[in-house]
Design a protein that fits this description.
38% of the residues lie in helices and 14% in strands. It is an alpha/beta fold. Strands 5-4-1-6-7-8 form a 6-stranded parallel beta sheet, sandwiched between helices. It has a two-stranded antiparallel ribbon with strand order 2-3. The two termini are 14 Å apart.
Length: 191
């Protein structure tokens, strides 16, 4: 039995307004990171990512929910993280996130009721306000918090995206199965 719990009404909402959530859109700065940007003396950019969030994104992929990164900035650090996680879709340096998301969602055959979105600031509002399920970290801008269906307990860059992923997995009925599989050892015994 899973230790993690969400209220039943939140689980229903996290199923989206379509048949089910099929795509989850994630911002980077302020969602997958704590929002701070470290710039070295030679202009190199550093970001810190949570392994919890990475496992959550990979878990979505495992069950057929496509995670998509849509970020306003483009940096080698983000490209490296996306590549390391094996995420199939990422849009970098995007100033108009809605204009970028529309053709991708059309290509994937998904409507907004089947989309979850997680963001923290004004550029994310067009996605959050259209998505079947909108999520935000607690440090998000007030306007984002106002449209979010769920505000995570975990802060940005420290498991907020994982909380959103876990919620989506639970709402879709996959969480317990994935958790159980991680309790199994290679010899078939329980840990």
């Amino acid at each position: 039995m899973a230790a993690l719990r969400f209220p039943p009404e939140l689980l229903v909402r996290a199923q989206g307004t379509g048949l089910a959530i099929k795509v989850a859109l994630f911002d980077v700065d302020g969602v997958l990171t704590d929002g701070r940007i470290y710039i070295g003396e030679r202009g190199e950019e550093f970001k810190a990512f949570s392994t919890l969030d990475g496992h959550g994104l990979k878990s979505l992929l495992q069950v057929g929910i496509t995670p998509v990164i849509i970020t306003g900035r483009d940096s080698p650090a983000v490209r490296r993280r996306v590549g390391d996680l094996g995420l199939p879709h990422a849009l970098y340096g995007i100033s108009d996130k809605l204009a970028a998301a529309r053709p991708l969602l059309q290509q994937l055959g998904v409507d907004w009721g089947e989309v979850a979105a997680m963001g923290d600031d004004w550029p994310d509002l067009p996605l959050l306000s259209r998505a079947g399920f909108a999520c935000a970290p607690p440090g998000a801008h007030a306007e984002v918090l106002a449209v979010a269906h769920h505000v995570t307990r975990a802060p940005a860059g420290f498991g907020a995206a994982r909380e959103c992923c876990d919620l989506l997995l639970m709402a879709a009925g996959h969480y317990e199965r994935l958790l159980h599989a991680h309790h199994e050892t290679l010899d078939g015994g329980r840990t």
